[in-house]
Automatic annotation (TrEMBL):
Location(s), subcellular: Membrane
Protein name: non-specific serine/threonine protein kinase
Coiled coil: none
Enzyme class, spelled out: transferase
Length: 303
C-alpha cells in the first residue's frame, strides 16, 4: 500500500478512521475546515492535539482555542452518543481510545444498521456529527461542539465553570464568588470569580482539599508522571502555589510504559465545566482555605 486517504484527513472523520493524537515525539493529525461552503481550500479552523496540551484535544480558530475536550481519563471505549433518527431506528456511536508505547489515537464505530455517519469540522468552526438521511437526501446534524455558549473556551472566566444541567449556565467554583457581581447579573462572565477567603499559602494548617466529582478539569495544567493518587495529592500539598489537582491511571495492559496522569494547577483555573456521570469526567481536588481535611479523603458535595 503506497497511499490511503484515511492517513491524510481533511475536514472529515469516518468510522474506522484513526485520529492520531500522538505518535512518538510528534503530535498527531488535525481535521482542517474548508475555507467556505464552496471552497475546499484550508480554512481557519482545526481540530486535534499538540504535545503541549496532551492528553486533551482542542478546536482552534487559527491559534485561538475555541473549544477544549476533557483531558483523557483512561477510558477505553465509551458509547455516550446515542441519537434517535426515526421512531424505529437509532444510532449509537462508540468512541475508543488506543494508547501504546509509541502511539495514541481515537477511532469510532457506529451501531449495526445505522445510517451513514461522519464527523465534520465545518467552515464556520463547529465539530458536527452528521448522518445521511436517505428520505430527504441530506446530511442531518445529530450533535455538535461547542454544545452551548458557556461551553466556549474560557467563557465563564477564571475560576468560573460551565454547568450543563439543568440549563447551561456559568457558576463560581466552591469557595469563590463573582469578581464583578453586577456583570454576572447582566450575562457578562469574562472577569470570572475570586476567592472568598485567601489561601494560607505555606502555612502548616488552614488549607484543605474539596473533592468535586464529575468535572471537566481546567486548562493550563502541569503533567506529573509516575505518581499514585496519594503521591499526586502530596505533590500539590507541598507546593505552596498549587491550587488544585486531578489523578487518573491511563495504563493499559498492552503498555509497558507508566501512564499515570497527575495534573496539578497553579494560579487561576480556566475553562472548567461540570459534566456529571460521564466517563470523560474527572474528580477535581480544589484547594480552599478553612478546610481541615486530608487531601485524598476530604470529599464534600459540590453546591
Amino acid at each position: 500500500m503506497l497511499w490511503q486517504s484515511f492517513d491524510y484527513p481533511t475536514d472529515t472523520m469516518l468510522p474506522g478512521m484513526k485520529m492520531v493524537i500522538k505518535h512518538g515525539a510528534r503530535a498527531g493529525e488535525r481535521l482542517v475546515s474548508w475555507k467556505g461552503p464552496g471552497d475546499p481550500s484550508p480554512g481557519n479552523f482545526s481540530y486535534g492535539s499538540d504535545l503541549a496540551t496532551f492528553p486533551q484535544i482542542f478546536l482552534w480558530d487559527g491559534t485561538r482555542p475555541v473549544y477544549r475536550s476533557t483531558p483523557w481519563t483512561g477510558y477505553r471505549v465509551k458509547s455516550e452518543y446515542q441519537f434517535q433518527t426515526t421512531n424505529t431506528s437509532s444510532i449509537i456511536i462508540y468512541l475508543a481510545v488506543v494508547s501504546d508505547d509509541d502511539e495514541s489515537y481515537t477511532v469510532y464505530t457506529v451501531s449495526d444498521g445505522a445510517w451513514l455517519t461522519r464527523f465534520v469540522l465545518t467552515y464556520s468552526g463547529e465539530l458536527q456529527i452528521q448522518s445521511w438521511n436517505a428520505s430527504s437526501s441530506a446530511w442531518a446534524v445529530l450533535g455538535q461542539w461547542p454544545h452551548y455558549q458557556c461551553d466556549l473556551y474560557g467563557y465563564c472566566g477564571p475560576n468560573g465553570y460551565c454547568d450543563a444541567l439543568p440549563v447551561p449556565a456559568c457558576r463560581c467554583l466552591n469557595g469563590f464568588e463573582p469578581a464583578r457581581a453586577y456583570e454576572w447579573t447582566t450575562g457578562r462572565f469574562s472577569e470570572g470569580c475570586r476567592r472568598k477567603e485567601a489561601l494560607s499559602g505555606c502555612s502548616a494548617d488552614g488549607d484543605g482539599f474539596l473533592a468535586l466529582p464529575g468535572m471537566k478539569p481546567p486548562d493550563g495544567f502541569a503533567l506529573v508522571a509516575n505518581r499514585t493518587l496519594e503521591g499526586c495529592a502530596a505533590e500539590c500539598r507541598r507546593n505552596c502555589s498549587c491550587v488544585a489537582y486531578a489523578y487518573a491511571n491511563l495504563t493499559s495492559g498492552a503498555s509497558s510504559v507508566d501512564m499515570t496522569r497527575c495534573l496539578v494547577w497553579a494560579g487561576e483555573l480556566v475553562d472548567v465545566g461540570k459534566l456529571g456521570a460521564s466517563p470523560a469526567s474527572d474528580k477535581l481536588y480544589l484547594r480552599l482555605a478553612g478546610l481541615d481535611a486530608p487531601a485524598v479523603k476530604g470529599q464534600r458535595a459540590m453546591q
